[in-house]
User: Fold this.
Amino acid sequence: MARWTARSAPGRSKCSTAAKGTSNKIIGKDLRISEATVKTHLLHIFAKLGVDDRTRAVTVAMERGIFRLDK
Assistant:
């Protein structure tokens, strides 16, 4: 299992935006990429974190200090 070290600012951005509950469609629009591309990026992030879903990805990323949610 690869360990994601959050060296990629775009990766952190997508993950933290997804953590806030933003839909893939809105993330794509904000980043000027397709919804399918967002899904692909998130799947790669999930694989690097060793998780299967968005909720677990957020939990693991926060546990590893990759990002934190601002209030």
